[in-house]
Amino acid sequence: MKENTGYGDIMELTEKFTFNPKEGIDNPALVISDDTAPAPGLEVRLCVLKRKEGESFGFHLRIERGCRGHVIRQVEPWGLAERAGLRDGDRLLEVNENFVDELEHIQVAQKIQVGGPQLCLLVLGGDEYDQAVSEGLDLRALARGQRGQDCARPRLCHITRDPGTGMGFNIVTVEGEKGKYSVSTVAGGPAERAGVRRGDHLVWINGAIASELTQSAINKMVKRCGNHLTVLVIDSESERSYARRRMPILPAMAGAHNLPHCPLRLHLQQGPDGYGFLLRQEKSASGRIDHRLREIDSGSPAELVGMQDGDALLAVNGEVVESMEHDDIVHRIRQSGQQVTLTVIHAQGRNFFTQLGLSPLLYHVHEKEQTNTTVPSAGSPKEEQADLPCPRLCVFERGPTGFGFHLGCFEQEPGTFIGQVAEGGPGQNAGLFQGDVVVEVNGQNVEEEFLEDVVLMVKEGGRSLSMLVVDRPGYKRLKQTGTLITPSLIPHFIKDEKTTDVSVM
Asked: What's this model's pTM, rounded to 2 decimal places?
């Protein structure tokens, strides 16, 4: 079943991002003084690192007892990190424009590991960091201030061709600027619905850097792309901000719009016969080594949480394992004991991100709420129903920029799903996740409705919105059993448990 990139106009995302591969890459250490001055005596530093294949960045990241923040240690003499301006004892504030001071250590390590060969690190010296903390300064505002309020995150947009209007955009050269291209969109067309805006500058197209391509080469790429195209774009004002700071615009900084695939985080509790899957190391047609989940046992804990044959394993308990050896991964799973958290992506999603040259872990991870507790056995109807996935009723109010989500649809078929959820927005706070299937809107079933009708229902509801949703694997299971999906399936009491990732680096 193919997914359409047409999103309902529910919300305008305002995430920020940029990409300029030509400027700033070889300028290793930059002191930020752009747009907004930092607090007196505090020198926020931008360090840009670019490594070659097989090369190390040349530093370690640690958490230390009695020391707040993520600490830079073991900076190799004359290594990449030192040449880029990193110093022993520095505290890390941002990784590729993402504020990390409040994140768990393993989450920060993951952002560094999956960001690719180039990193943009924003740091404070150790003494300055301690000073800022003691004075109660807002570190997030301090980091944000160096790039200015008008600088927006770049957008990674996945466009699906429309039979009538095509991709819904044209690409033209920017007059007087060699290697720069501007995007002109068709109002309400596929490109606009996917997050592209009129006047955006094209940074990257299907994994290729736009500034390194001719107009003819770009036109050929668009014609040969088939029904889908993924582009990285940014507004011209934000691009100028990155240029002033000599900072590259990287895909790792992008806000994702309308991507057709996202990783899943599965929480498994071991049953009497184990987890119910096999892990195999396989070589793809492109030569890439993947760790695939195979032979999912019927009724096993793995099947209950939505694991599918051929899923690619990305992380174990939050630790990235894509580049690990098979035996090391098996050891980590066994070390977990009776329960384990696996981050996976379905086979089509793995292929999608491989073709783009990006890690799936750069983007939103769908958090599976349902954790299996027992292997199901034949029993009464009530017992069988207890093992079925649970829908969620999300109730929320419109915020300043909307409800905080976009809708997606299946190509030429009824049915809608949650395509993009704004971080910290009303939708996320109410419990919406990317990929959720929409069952009801304000009490009315919409499973057989088309996208345009669902968008209209949302708008007609005013400032309040109630949505009954269920994750996609759960939706398929409920449909297979013939279960009518209604709010009555929601348990009266749901315990909200969050897994805390722990790592020593």
From this structure: 0.62
